[in-house]
Amino acid sequence: GQQVQQSPASLVLQEGENAELQCNFSTSLNSMQWFYQRPEGSLVSLFYNPSGTKQSGRLTSTTVIKERRSSLHISSSQITDSGTYLCAIQNFYFGKGTSLTVIP
Amino acid sequence: EAAVTQSPRNKVTVTGGNVTLSCRQTNSHNYMYWYRQDTGHGLRLIHYSYGAGNLQIGDVPDGYKATRTTQEDFFLLLELASPSQTSLYFCASSEGQGGTERLFFGHGTKLSVL
């Protein structure tokens, strides 16, 4: 079965709005990562966050192992944030991603 | 930042053809991975390795072979390519044990099997 579920599948924001992306997993883990996939396909590592909260600029990742979930919060969204956001557990299982479009 | 280089960036072949995708990482990471990405499926693990000469199967290994010749080099082989193997292929590496450390990705190889 699907080990990693991401929601929402797609999201449209107006520039300046905040977003909360969710990643739920069905197995215990000791490795959780978030990636950004540019529209042209390349992957950028955002967070390696197996537990707790980490922040980088406008991005915040929170992983709660007991609840088997991780979230990615994007504040004050910008047009350049558009793309696909992927989560992965154990380096083996990826979610299908959240496609984010930020419009002016 | 760890560097992972894939080649070629694009490849077109015919059904039944042989294809080799190459991956090199320059930070002597223990683990290397091959994934494929298809619309509606996200990234799926094909094979991975935790050192030269080692090979482990992933979730979608059928139709693929892989070989880790050195700490740096990991190859994915399609010996009888089929149209179902048209996909975007990513190589990645990580250090540490159990494949639990941060992943570093190559830029991807777009493969089309006609």
Alpha-beta classification of chain A? mainly beta
Q: Tell me which oligomeric state these chains represent.
A: heterodimer
Number of helices of chain A: 0
- Helix/strand structural class of chain B: mainly beta
Radius of gyration of chain A: 13 Å
**Main beta sheet of chain A:** 6 strands, mixed
* Beta-strand share of residues of chain A: over 45%
In which range does the helix fraction of chain B lie? under 10%
What's the number of extended β-strand segments of chain A? Answer: 11
SSE ordering of chain A: EEEEEEEEEEE
| Average predicted confidence as pLDDT of chain B | 92
> Nearest-angstrom radius of gyration of chain B?
13 Å
Unreliable stretches of chain A (pLDDT < 50, length at least 5) are none
How widely separated are the two ends of chain A? 39 Å
Strand content of chain B: over 45%
* Low-confidence spans of chain B: none
The major beta sheet of chain B can be summarized as: 7 strands, mixed
Shape of chain A: globular
**Helix proportion of chain A:** under 10%
SSE succession of chain B = EEEEEEEEEEE
Structure description:
Chain A has strands at residues 4-7, 10-14, 19-25, 32-37, 43-48, 52-56, 59-64, 69-74, 83-89, 93-94, 98-103. Chain A has 104 residues and is mainly β. In chain A, a hairpin with a 5-residue loop joins strand 4 (32-37) and strand 5 (43-48). The mean pLDDT of chain A is 93. In chain B, a hairpin with a 6-residue loop joins strand 5 (42-49) and strand 6. Chain B has strands spanning 4-7, 10-13, 19-25, 31-38, 42-49, 56-57, 65-68, 73-78, 87-94, 104-105, 109-113. Chain B is an all-beta fold and 114 residues long. In chain B, strands 2, 4, 5, 6, 9, 10 and 11 form a seven-stranded mixed beta sheet that branches. In chain B, strands 1-3-8-7 form a four-stranded antiparallel beta sheet, with no helix packed on it. Chains A and B meet through strand 5 and strand 10 of A and strand 4, strand 5, strand 9 and strand 10 of B.
